[in-house]
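For reproducibility, we list the full input for the zinc ion complex.
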Amino acid sequence: MTSKTALLTHADCLAHVTPDGHPEQVARLEHVLYALQPLEVARITAPLAADDDILRIHPASYLAELRRASPSEGHRALDADTWMSPGSLDAAFRGAGAMVRAVDMVLGGEAPNAFAAVRPPGHHAETDTPMGFCLFGNAALGVKHALDHHGLNRVAVVDFDVHHGNGTQDLLWDEPRALLISSQQIPLFPGTGRASETGAHDNILNLPLPPESGGAHMRREYQHKALPRLRDFAPQLIIISAGFDAHADDPLAQLNWSTEDFAWLTAEICEIAADVCQGRVVSTLEGGYDLNALSASVRAHVQELMKAAT
Ligand SMILES: [Zn+2]
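The corresponding predicted structure, in tokenized form, follows.
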């Protein structure tokens, strides 16, 4: 057992190449890894997920379709936003594999908590549909792996990406053993995530946040609604969909959070984890498109995980 936060990544995640000018670019992960370089974390090479891992959340037809769509050169558009290059499928399998390995490490006592620095992101990928830059639903995959492989009974996801985690919501809609808490700017892509969307078993809490509402509003909403709900659920593991596009400098949204807001929220989640599940937290990178805001916010996020780990 190490007391260090695990950092999982793989060079394959840099080989998912989007067209010039696309916000979900290789430089995002390069900046993140550079910002994390000085930190004393346990560095873990993310494995490729097995097909069986992916099949916990996506049907075989979906996997076959992605393999058919995978280009041998150049780029292929799956929709207006979501692209594949020759390296994209391996990158996505590393992202999913990082989640599986991180869950195994944290539940197996090999690491107190973990962060997966991966791309493409995952939380927009629905059961049958790639979407919003995402191919595999990494956060939901972590939930199902923890429930069905490790035999847990209650796993929570907190998704603070500025966009609604519609894919995670779709994949966990019918899962009574999961609680999904997702905060998002509304109106914004993908258009879902209203408070009235609560899941088949009242297992989803959506927190819509208005444009320009800022970090203080976010903190009140989390303190009054999301964090008490998370604590009451008493999860045995908390998975974070860590998107940093709510930052004031982000070009895709207008929530105006600061780097300190991400640190605050991370610390609050870790405090609940310490009280209810021995601090077990697995976080995976979602969005965040201003390179400096992204790298500073990820570093603040991982530093809070490290503080909670000691
Ligand atoms: Zn986002």
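The pocket of zinc ion is lined by residues 161-163, 243, 245, 286-287 (CB under 6 Å). Residues 6-309 form a domain with the Arginase; Chain A fold (CATH 3.40.800.20). Both points were considered when choosing residues for closer inspection.
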